[in-house]
Every structure is written in C-alpha cells, then in structure tokens.
Amino acid sequence: MLVKEVMTKDLIVIDKDASLSFAIDLMVKNRVSRLLVLNEGRLIGVLTERDILDRLGSSRLGALQASSIHVSSAMTLNPITVPPESDIVDAARIMLEKRISGLPVVDKEELVGLVTKSTMTKLCSKVKNVTVSQLMTPNPITIPPYERITNARRIMLEKKISSLPVIEEGRLVGLITEGMIARYLAEFRDSVPEKYQMTRIKQIEVSNVMKKISPLHPDEKISAAVEKFVKEKIKASPVVNKEGRLIGILTKTDFTRFVANRFSLP
Length: 266
Prior knowledge:
Blueprint: H1 3-6, E1 13-15, H2 20-30, E2 34-39, E3 42-48, H3 49-56, E4 76-77, H4 88-98, E5 102-107, E6 110-116, H5 117-122, H6 132-135, E7 137-138, H7 149-159, E8 163-168, E9 171-177, H8 178-191, H9 194-201, H10 222-232, E10 236-240, E11 246-251, H11 252-260
Parallel strand pairs: 1-2
Antiparallel strand pairs: 2-3, 3-4, 5-6, 7-11, 8-9, 10-11
Helix pairs in contact: 3-8, 4-11
C-alpha cells in the first residue's frame, strides 16, 4: 500500500508569522494536533501540540502572551517528508524511529498530502483477530490528580509521551494530554497578569486540566478501539480490567507499530 493511497489531502496550514494563539484556535477548530507551516506558500516546518507545550512552558519566554509569540519560534524546522510513492509500512517505521507523529508528503518540492499516526490507526479498522490487550502498552506512566501540571508537562517532554492516565487510590479518574496542557498554558499566559504567573502556575493541579474518559477493556477488538478513536477524536485510551484497575494504555503509536510490523504482532 502506497502513501498516496491513504494520505489526507485536506491540509491545515498556517503562516510562520501567525501567533501561537491563532495556531491553537486553528487546531481546536479543525480537531488536529499539528499544523503545516508555510512561508510564501512553501513548506518550512511543522507545529505540533508538543512544540507548543514545550514553548509555552519555557521560563525563557518570561510572561509573553501566546498571542505575541510567532509560530516560527516554536515550530520544528525542515520536517522529515516522504514522497507519495513510499510504502505506508516504511512511513510508519520512520515515524517510530524518529519519534514523530506525522509526515508531510512532498512530490517534486510540492506539498501534496500528509500521513499521520491517525492515518495508521484508521488502517487497523478492519483487523478482526487482534484484541486491545495484544496491542496496548502495559504498565503506563501515570500521574495523580493533585500533581502539578508543570510536572505533567516535564514528564511528557522527557519521556516523549502525549498522554498520562490520572490515577487516584488505584482508580482511573481521567486522562491528561499534551494538547490539554498546551491550551491551558496559552489561556493562562493571556489572562493572568505577569506578576502573578510564576506563583499561580505552580498551584495548578492536573485535576484542573484533565478530562474524564471512558476506558477500553482488554478483550475488546482493536477494530472497535479504532472506531472509538475516530469517533471521539482521541489519541490514547486507558485500558482497565474487570475490577476497574488500570492495566495499560492504547495509543496511536501502538497502532503505528502494528502497521510498521506489517499488520502483525511481534
């Protein structure tokens, strides 16, 4: 299967001189986690939720508002690309090896499409003989609801993970993602006076930002999991056993790994 057969051609782009506030609004409006950055119509970078999370949480910015920060200062410059004739398995392997979530598709220097981990997830919709327990990542990193979001941000950036199940007294109470924190930080910078920012940000707990999520169960088919991911526009889902205890997390990276392994288990 070739990249050109499954890539999306409905591209969400942004100019390098646009603000991060505008970029976040564009992501939310289109329910995407990345934007392709253009300069005079030419692809020069990619802006992801992780890029925004990294930039807005940096003390080097001082108290700059997100509306005053340019996309060009946060984006990943000169992104890795693939040609439309590439095999989708090779594209999945590149994502895993480079630890990136998407690949712009370029044909003779022209931007023609995009393949992402969402693409890889949808490709697993017709797989009938694999269960969630076989594909999930067991024993995921978790965080309690009373932990500070600054620590959640640090964990995500250090471990290069996009989601953390929130656990209280052994029970799943929610999920926090890099996108949730990035959006919160943008609103925080734009609404809290500069002299209070340093003190107040340290008081914001995970419980103030996380969202409740219905988990998956280990014996569910991954085709049903794909349906959930597509319908709810999520990038990860905690997996709990019959007793409600967290036993794993299923992410788009897990689906991408499955595609990279030619739709077979290790």
